[in-house]
Amino acid sequence: MSSTTSPSQRILESRTHLCGAVTVDDVGQRIKVCGWVAKRREHGEHLAFVDLRDFSGIVQCVVEGTVDVRSEYVLQVEGTVQLRPEGTSNDALSTGMVELHDCTVTVLNIAEPPPFSLDERAEVDEPARLRHRFVDLRRTRMQDNLRMRAAVNRAIRHAMDAQGFCEIETPMLWAPTPEGSREFAVPSRQHQGRFYVLPQSPQLAKQLLMVSGFDRYYQIARCLRDEDLRADRQFEFTQLDLECSFATEAEIRSFVTEAVLDAAQAVLGERPEYPVTMTWAEALDRFGTDKPDLRFSMELLELSEVFAHTEVKAFSAPTVKALLVEGGGAMSRSALDKLVDRAKELGAKGLAWFKISDGGAGLELESPLAKVLTDAERQGLFEVTGARAGDLIVVVADQYRLACNVLGQLRVELGGKPVSEGPYRYCWIIDFPLFDGTDAEGNPEAAHHAFTMPHPEDLHLLATEPLKVRAQSYDLVLNGWELGSGSIRIHRADIQRQVFAAMGIAEEEGTARFGFLLNAFRYGAPPHGGFAFGIDRLVAIFAGENNIREVIAFPKTQSGADLLTGAPGELSPQHMAELGLRPVPKAT
Prior knowledge:
The chain is an alpha+beta fold. The longest helix has 23 residues, at 140-162. It has 13 helices and 22 strands. The strands form five sheets. It has an eight-stranded mixed beta sheet with strand order 6-9-10-22-21-20-17-11, sandwiched between helices. A five-stranded antiparallel beta sheet has the order 3-2-1-4-5, with no helix packed on it. The chain has a five-stranded antiparallel beta sheet with strand order 12-13-16-14-15, sandwiched between helices. Helix 3 (140-162) crosses helix 12 and helix 10 (493-502) packs antiparallel against helix 11. Among the domains are: 19-109, CATH 2.40.50.140; 126-279 and 527-558, BirA Bifunctional Protein, domain 2 (2-Layer Sandwich); 296-415, 2-Layer Sandwich (Gyrase A, domain 2), CATH 3.30.1360.30.
């Protein structure tokens, strides 16, 4: 969305036009505009030019005589629209062919000098921007980002309504329900010593709505998680949250796909490619991650058979994986050493590399390990990778998951590009493991949550080999960012008991922790499933931003501070007493 795009506005007594909506069709009309002073220029003692700005754009006002206004003063200007003199038009503005003459200027409010320039070309450090966010949000970039966000929300709502979903709000004050992330607690004044929590997601509430017979629910939901912040994570975030009864996994994915593609079309003007679908196992094997960036190839290559009988200690491991970096042979030795160090940071024992050169009689390998390879291993390396002169091969030998994960990260660092750059390549990842490792007591831990339906073909493995059980869960990925995840839910008490048992959760403990949901299931729970994806992340990608703070009106810093309001702050002793709280001395 461009700042020069002017939506239709109801005519008000104080203004007849938006600043960016004045065109050659208005020439000769007497109009009123309101906004902030973007720039003021004096031409001698008898003429002044004032660029007036609102969210829609800028219009130039020609004022006879002097005018005592400064940057960011709030004005109403009444004037007559005229064509600019020949040779003075400004193609960078939607109003660049016209200007206002015979102007009457009314100062609606004065302003102190802004803390930083609002010129988009000016570099301003983020703390200053967040401390004065109300000024930062006047900038064209921020106006465009937040209006794009509004357009995405409109498109999502339209898509969900068209597919028969009912919008329902769920509580912000909820009961503690362990779902994998740390929750924010809210003390109760009326029930001292007891707490609400702010919802990590409407997960259990929306499942209760399915039991209630609403069939298809959705919500643009506010969620809160007390997690460490990063480029794609804030304490507060917004997601499209949906749940559907009597639908298959594929059908739920199709509902979500329509919503995200409609949103993309609404703000980008074109519809991206339909998402491809691959299993979790395929994504890990080909790309080393469950959130693959499909904008470039550079897939992981399997060398385990090539080195199955090797005598090279560096390759004596259960799995040998490689990446072909086209043109990477130009990397310096110091750059390669840094690459090896990076692999070790990611958990690998080491990283082998091979530069490919043309030796005249054929391709040759340049590497500390080149001389210890057999002819068969050297030939297999060329055949599997398809390497050419000037390329680089990097190899990790280790346990399967670790080798894949390390090369998956190096793949992005060597060949990737910012997440916000096009094209937009969506991908559905399906068939995740139901459990992802074990806890300190050796009990399997849910990869998604304890209410995810196991794959029907794997139910028999729950009691004997739970780590091999696949889940009916699915993630949506865009340009290497996980947008969101979902699953078919367990709606049968017998299967829920089996999953709890596999996790080492006794029936009494399950009832204590999730009793209100399990109780609801006693009264006729339909088969159901759902999904949620992050709107902040989606909009950031569409807006060309690599940090979701740039598409949130009032975000927190990476340390969780709100520089505008000073939050988090302290409560007064009286307020603490009302809540039944007392401060704990800070650790020294």
